[in-house]
Structure formats: structure tokens, C-alpha cells
Amino acid sequence: MRPELRDSLTPGSEAAALAEAIDFARLPRHVAIIMDGNGRWAQRRRLPRVQGHRAGIASVRDVVESSARLGLQVLTLYAFSIENWKRPRLEVETLMRLLREYLRRELRTLLDNDIRFQVIGRIRELSAPVQRELEAGMEATAGCKGLLFNIALSYGGRAEIVDACDRLVREALARGTAPALDEATFAGYLYTAGQPDPDLLIRTSGEMRLSNFLLWQVAYAEMWMTDTLWPDFRHVELFRAILDYQKRERRYGGLAPGGDGATGPRRVQSL
Prior knowledge:
By secondary structure, the chain is an alpha/beta fold. It contains nine helices and six strands.
């Protein structure tokens, strides 16, 4: 176990026991998370929805820092979709304010943990103050060599593919010739160009859908769903997801060595 992870855990705790069971030679390179359930968390406590979003910030902090201590290469959090622009104006404004507050408060922590911050999505659709805050965070952490922390804002998987096609066509027209196109070439036009595809996709709150998230990239991702609402999600759940991931055989359409492809019954939670 990495020393920075061991030092962050309470000896004898459930989290420490789970961490001891993780095979650090077989970590997922890229973990993507659909953060869901803030509104329901607030509703169950008879609080305004915005309080659920505020509570969810603590989960973001915990998961980002824990991912860095684990030694993950990439973490992508789905924070605000293109469809979320349809929500009430007050809720959208609160989400953007919380985002700016997070960056201001956590920038020092990101730097101390060697975490590089990046935004994926249609950033130009965000307000100028939000764009400036995001750009400042990306610039300040550009030299970090540890975890790459992507936050998906004004993001949609279909929109990403459309934007990639648009860039490809524009470049082809400018050059007067189309490139030889294959999957690797096309992936170079996505927001996540140069990054490994997610090995593990986590969704909170019990929902079982992709919600237009990383549609190209999660083609072969292992999926792990939990009923836990996002404000209650912590590193213990992250460790459980990684341990479940490490029990699976990833065949990419082929067969396991010496097997017929059958793996027996699987947990309902693991799609």
C-alpha cells in the first residue's frame, strides 16, 4: 500500500481493511463517476436541493484526494451536463458558485497532492467568471504529474462526438484532404484525447443508465452501481468498487484463457 494512503486511514477501520485487500498492481487506470443523488439526499432531510449540492462537495474532496493517494492515473467526475441547463436558474447559479468556491478552497490541496485539474465539455457555454476560475485552476496545476482530475461541465457524450466530427471536418477542409480515419485517430479529437479510456464507471443513487456520459470512452468499461447517494459517498465505497472491479475478467469480446466465456452468476449491482 502507498504510504500516503496508509497514513490517511485509521488502523483497524473498514477502510483500512479494504485498502489492504486492493491489488495495487491491477488498479483501474481511469475511474469515471456519475455523481447522482444530491437532490434526493436533500429531499429526505427536508432541505432545499441546493443543500444537497453543497453536501456533495465533501464527497468530491474525499474521492479526489483518495484517488490521488491510491495512485490512479485519471479520475473523471460528471458534474454538470448539457441537459442540466434546463434546471431552475437559482439551482444552476448555485452549482456554478459552489464550483468556484471548491476551486478557490482546494487549489492548494490539489497542488500539494500533485493533482492536475482539467475541464472537459463545452466550456464556452459557461459564464465568463466561471471560465476564468476554471482556466486559473488548470493553469496553476498544469505542471502536476500525479492524478489527472477531469471535471465534466456543460458536458454531453453526444455533443462531444459531434464536436470531434466538426473539428475533424474543419481540419480536412483546411488541408484539402481527409485523414485516414480509424478509432485511435478519432479518439484524438475527443475532449479526453491522450487519456486512457475509463476502466471503471461508477454511478451513485441506484440509477442504472449512462446519462449521456463518455459514450465513446466507456465502450469496454466495467460498471459498478451503488444505492448510496452522492453526498454520502466516500473512499470506503470507492475501495469497494475497485475490489469488485479486480474480481472481474476483462476479455474485450474474447474468451478467458482455457475457458468457454462463462463466468457464472454476477451480482445485480455489477452490470
